[in-house]
Amino acid sequence: MQKFYILLCLFFSFSSFVWAKEAVTQYSIEEIQRLGLEANGLVHAARSQVNIAEAGVVSASAFPNPEVTFMAGPDTPRLPFELTGPSSTQRHVTVTQPLENPFFRSARIGSAEAGVEASRANLDQVRADLAAQLRIRAYELLLRQKQADMESSIFDLMEEIQRRIKLSVEVGESARFELIRADTEVMTAASRKEAALLNAERARVALFQLTAGRLQSDFEIIASLNDPVQLPELEELHKQIITTNPDILRLEAEQDRARLRIDQERASVLPSVNILYSNYQDKQFTSNTAGLSVKVPLFYRRRGEIDSAIFDSARVRDTLEYRRYEVNRLLESAWQAMQIAKRRVEMYEGGIIQEAESALRVAEAAFRLGERGFIEVLDTQRVLRGARAELLQAYFELQSAAAEIDRLRAHYPKE
After folding, report:
1. How many of the other CB atoms lie within 10 Å of CB of 62?
2. pTM for the full predicted model
C-alpha cells in the first residue's frame, strides 16, 4: 500500500511538471505582444524620451536663481596719514535677482509640456508598430508551420506513390521511366519540405528577436490562421484614427509647441528687468542701495528668431494636414486588402479546396486500381497544393491587414 501511494504521488508530480511546462511554453498572440512590449529596447528608449521631456518641464518651470557678487579689500591711502587717518578694509556685496517675463515663462512651460505630449505620442507609435510586427510575425510563423505540414504530407504521399511504382516496376507492370519520374518528384517534395521547415525556423527566430529573447525556446502559439477578425465599420475607424493615431497626435503636439515657440520669441522682445541690491561698508560708512536693471531691445528685436518660429509652425501644420490625409488613405488601403483577403478565403473555402481534395482522392483510387497513371495523380496533387497554399496566404493577408488597421488606430494590449 505504501509503494502504491509513493507511485501515485510521483505520477501526480510528473503530471504537474508536464502541465506547468506546457503552460510556460504556450503563448497567445496578446501574450507575445505584451512580452515584446515589455522587453524590446526600442520601447525602453522611447519611454526614456518621455522621461527626458518631463524633466524638461521641471527645468522650464524653475525660477531664475539670484546672483550674489562679493568684493573686499584694503584701502591704500594716497594722501598723508594726517589727512586720511589709518588704513581700513572695505567690502561690497551686490545681489541681482532677475524678474522673469510672465508671458515668456508661460510660453516656455507650455512648449515643454507640448514636448512631453509629443514624446508620449512617439512612445505610442513605437508600441503600436512593434505590436503590429509581433502579430504579423506570429501569424507568419503559423503560416510557415502550416506550409511545412502541407509539404510534409505531400512528401509522404509522393513516397507512398514511389513505393507503389517501384513494386509495379519490379513485377514488370510499369516501365522504369515511371520510377525515375517518381524519384524526381520525391526529391522535389523533399526539397520543398526542407525549405518550408527552414522558413518556419526563420519566422521563429524573428519572433525571438522582436521579444528580446523573452520567449521559451520550444514555445507554441495558441492561435490559428483562420482566427476571426472583428473590427468596427470603416466610418467608425475613420473617426477613431483622427483621435488615436500616434503620428497625428505627435504632430498636433509639435504644432502646439511650434505655436508656443512663436509666443516665446515674441515675449522675449519685451524689456527684461533685474532687481539690484548693494551693500557697501568701510571703516566710516555703510551704504545700502537698491535699483533696477532694464535690458531694452532697442536695435535688434529678434526678427530672425520670430520668422524662423513662424515658418517652422507652418511646416508642422502642413505636415500634419498631409499626414491626416495619408493615414486615412492607408486605412482605406488596409481595409480594401482585408476585404479582398476575406473574399479569397470565402472562395477557396466555399468549394475549390473540397473539389480539389475530391479530385485527388479519385485520382489516388484510380491509380491504386491501375486505371490512371502517375501523371494524373501528380496533376491533381499540384492543383490541391496550389489551392491550399493560396488559402493559407489569404488567411495570412487577412490577419496582416487587420494588424495594419490596429497599428493605425494604436490598438494593442497594454504592458
Report:
1. 11
2. 0.81
